[in-house]
Every structure is written in structure tokens, then in C-alpha cells.
Design brief:
Blueprint lengths: L3 E6 L2 E6 L6 E2 L1 H15 L7 E6 L8 E2 L1 H8 L6 H14 L4 E5 L2 E3 L1 H7 L3 E5 L3 E3 L13 H9 L1 H10 L2 E3 H7 L4 E3 L4 H13 L3 H15 L3 H18 L1 H11 L1
Length: 250
């Protein structure tokens, strides 16, 4: 049985993870999420934004399942790490922007799942961290690489080398979170926040994600060239832009 459920709200697909008691994500759930993302990636006519959230009170995803991590360390879970890499690549490469809606704790693997999304929003009680060093290990799901690129090497070093937890307000100031909302009604407010993007032109939204994601991985000059290519293509093909030009000419 999958611990992920899917609900559609207009152009927003809300994926909720519910695995009591603390929403630790196991390898099977990673594979399930990858399957769901592959399906949603093909539904661009209906789904324009994908939002991940937690179904256990005060948790987004609490972290990786300890038993599965131990098995992986012993070489007894050969499909585990590939399942993680697959789902994080899908979050990066699928046409739709991906959003982590964090109401409560997002530690370790949960935080790394959120970092693999393009956008992160949190409730006022959101708490984000990479505590692995305090447990005698290191981040293994991309946290040591994605977080410093997002919030800078100084703040990233504090999170990774000290393993401390950051509050929602701290995370917002650093750019770790894009927005902070009240706890009451958080999920509905997060869906509404995502729907603002879903109301935009699909052509422009998906192209904007492509240039954003790929540009982060390219040297600046190559990124600028890629942006121009995408810009010229969309200027010539976007029906929304054609309509805008006609309105100006009236």
C-alpha cells in the first residue's frame, strides 16, 4: 500500500505523504513517489504545478527511514539509492514546477526532498535542518550540495557542519523558504499559492522552469545563450503572447 495520496485542485496536483508515526520515508515510498511523478509529468494539460506535503501533524517528511538507511550502508538495499536519485531527478526535470509545502519538521531526508523542489513554503512552525553530523553521519541525499547553492556557503556550512535546526523565519530570511504562512489552514493556503502559478500560461511556466533549472547547472555565458534560444522560441509560438500583442494593437 502506498503512503502517498494524490488530490487535484485545478491545475495543482497535491501529493501527501502519510506514514505514522513520524513520516520517515522508506525506499518503497521513494519508488512510489517516482512512479507518481512520472505519471504527472505526462499530464501537462491538466497538471501545471506539483506540490508535496505531509499528512502527519507537525511533519513534512521527518527524514529517511533508519532501518532502510542501515540496510543501504550494509549493501543490502541495491535499489534504494537509485530510487532516491530517480525521484529527485524527476522533481528537477519534469515539466511542472515542484513545491514543498512544509508544516512542521523537515529534517535530513525530508529537507533534502524539499531542496530537490524548485520552491519551498512553510508554516510558522516549520523547522528545517540537516542534523546528520550530530548523529555521526553526513547528508546523503543531496543536502550538502543543494543547500549551500541555495542559501550560500556561510549559512550552508552552519546547517551542515553544526547540524542545527532553523526556524521558519530564519529559513525565510535566508531564502531557504519562499514564503511563510499561518499554521491554521496552511495546506489550503499553500494550494492557493501554487494555483497562482497554475493560472499562468503553461507554455511560459514550463519554459521558465527549464531555463531556471538548466541555467543553474551551466556557466553564465552558456546559460544566457540557452535563455535566448528558449526566449526566441516562445516569442514565436506562445498563443498568450500573440493575444497580448493583439490587445496592444487595438
Amino acid at each position: 500500500m502506498s503512503h502517498w495520496s494524490v488530490e487535484h485542485h485545478g491545475g495543482v496536483a497535491k501529493l501527501t505523504f502519510t506514514r505514522p508515526p513520524r513520516n520517515f520515508i522508506d525506499f518503497a515510498s521513494m519508488a512510489d513517489l517516482g512512479d507518481l511523478l512520472e505519471q504527472l509529468a505526462q499530464q501537462t494539460d491538466q497538471v501545471k504545478v506539483v506540490m508535496l506535503t505531509g499528512g502527519i501533524d507537525d511533519y513534512f517528511v521527518g527524514g529517511g527511514d533508519i532501518a532502510d538507511l542501515q540496510r543501504a550502508g550494509r549493501g543490502e538495499a541495491p535499489g534504494g539509492i537509485p530510487s532516491w536519485l530517480r525521484l529527485t531527478r524527476l522533481l528537477r526535470d519534469m515539466p511542472q514546477p515542484t513545491v514543498a509545502a512544509i508544516d512542521g519538521r523537515a529534517h535530513g531526508g525530508g529537507n533534502e526532498l524539499a531542496l530537490a523542489c524548485q520552491l519551498r513554503i512553510g508554516s510558522e512552525r516549520a523547522r528545517l535542518g540537516l542534523p546528520e553530523v550530530t548523529l555521526g553521519i553526513i547528508p546523503g541525499g543531496g543536502g550538502s550540495q543543494r543547500l549551500p547553492r541555495l542559501i550560500g556557503p556561510g549559512a550552508g556550512a552552519e546547517a551542515i557542519l553544526r547540524g542545527r535546526t532553523f526556524t521558519a523565519d530564519e529559513a525565510l530570511r535566508l531564502g531557504w523558504l519562499n514564503a511563510v504562512m499561518p499554521v491554521d489552514g496552511f495546506v489550503d493556503a499553500a494550494v492557493a499559492w501554487c494555483q497562482e502559478m497554475a493560472n499562468l500560461s503553461s507554455t511560459a511556466l514550463f519554459a521558465a522552469k527549464r531555463v531556471f533549472v538548466r541555467g543553474l547547472e551551466l556557466p553564465l555565458e552558456q546559460g544566457l545563450e540557452y535563455e535566448i534560444e528558449e526566449f526566441l522560441d516562445i516569442v514565436g509560438t506562445s498563443p498568450e503572447f500573440d493575444q497580448f500583442i493583439r490587445q496592444l494593437e487595438q
